[in-house]
Amino acid sequence: xxxxxxxxxxxTVKFGGSSVAGADQFRKVKAIVESDPSRRIVVVSAAGKxxxxxHKLTDLLYLCHAHLQYGVSCDEIFADIRSRFLSIRxxxxxxxxxxxxxxxxxxxxxxxxxxxxxVSRGEYFTSRLMAEYLGYVFVDAADCVFFNxxxxxxxxxxxxxxxxxxxxxGRIVIPGFYGRLPxxxxxxxxxxxxxxxxxxxAAATESDxxxxxxxxxxxxxxxxxIVENPRSIAHITYSELRELAFMGASVLHEESILPVREKxxxxxxxxxxxxxxxxxxxxxxxxxxxxxxxxxTGVTGRRGFQVLTVxxxxxxLSRTLxxxxxxxxxxxxxxxxxxxxxxxxxxxxxASSLGENLYEILSDMKKECHAEDxxxxxxxxxxxxxxxxxxxxxxxxxxxxxxxxMNGVNIRTIAQGSxxxxxxxxxxxxxxxxxxxxxxxxxxx
Length: 445
Ligand code: ASP
What we know:
Radius of gyration: 25 Å
Bound molecules: aspartic acid
Strand content: 15-25%
Number of domains: 2
CATH architecture of the largest domain: 3-Layer(aba) Sandwich
Strand order of the largest sheet: 3-4-2-1-7-9-10-8
Helix content: 25-40%
Largest sheet: 8 strands, mixed
Distance between the termini: 49 Å
Shape: globular
Number of strands: 16
């Protein structure tokens, strides 16, 4: 085993599409990678948007495939894709012969060309350029990320191949987002899948940290469209992140968390455009003393729910509730929250999932639950205050309700997550933004 494999820190660093959108971004990536010799595994997305109206290469490649399907010429789009790659190469003074490879690809394109293979070329060519620019060895994801017959990642085979590639070459660049099926064909993951590739590489190589470089300085404590300049979260646990993501905050591809979480590898979200900012560290357990005072980690939520409250005196709660849940299940509707009273219970579901079935559901519930009355409340938003220390702090809920009340927000439902990581409050859709602001301003500390 070469010496470098067994010594020192090891970091897997993944750069998202906006971090590799053009030559200038490539320069920033190089500075980041070179500033820390332990950044030896680099996972790269396809070049993304350079400016707001620009197109991601992945989108252009999907469009190219759609043109082929409909028998419309894709020459113009392909030329655009080609020139994006070549301009990065030329601006950086690289010598790679990707022009020839792109021409060969163009000549093979027809109606039956695999969409997965075509779309994966975004990551493939971006990584080829990055490998040459960094002086790292390019390792094709088709040779180190494997799917099984069911289309799931074959962890054992993937782990072994990634580990071997690192041991053999020491410093590697791997394209994200795709891998190979047992048939030898290329398969892409769901959109944003390079996050997963990065996590697989970090887990396989037992990296000390998985850095996910993007264009924001970590996860924000609240939606910046609602709260002006929200602070970013310094430390968050994997469980809190799940709560935040479940209620609407989107940062990372969800599946990307599992491989690193299993191995206890911290995940650090960083900003390529602001490399000195420490970003957000996602860990199993937060030890940082400085974090002790604050109990709110983040606030998030979603609009568009309905609350169905079933009233019945002297009911057998478990029987009546289980019947109500069976009805929801029959209509394939997910219940997001349940709140219980003595002679009533309330079920919260998204209005779009209830849709046209609402009246049939109400009639079934009336019959099967022997409900005296069912109240339907529309236009409800759920706001989640997420924080690992909320449960340990006395009077938290009271303070939250008080702050909302003082600001004229009427609380319609309340549910505390059973793991006590979140308090979820139902308010009118029209009060949603105020509620988020009140929680952030009152408790972000
Ligand atoms: N390039 C792919 C996408 O745009 C995958 C990724 O960036 O992670 O979804």
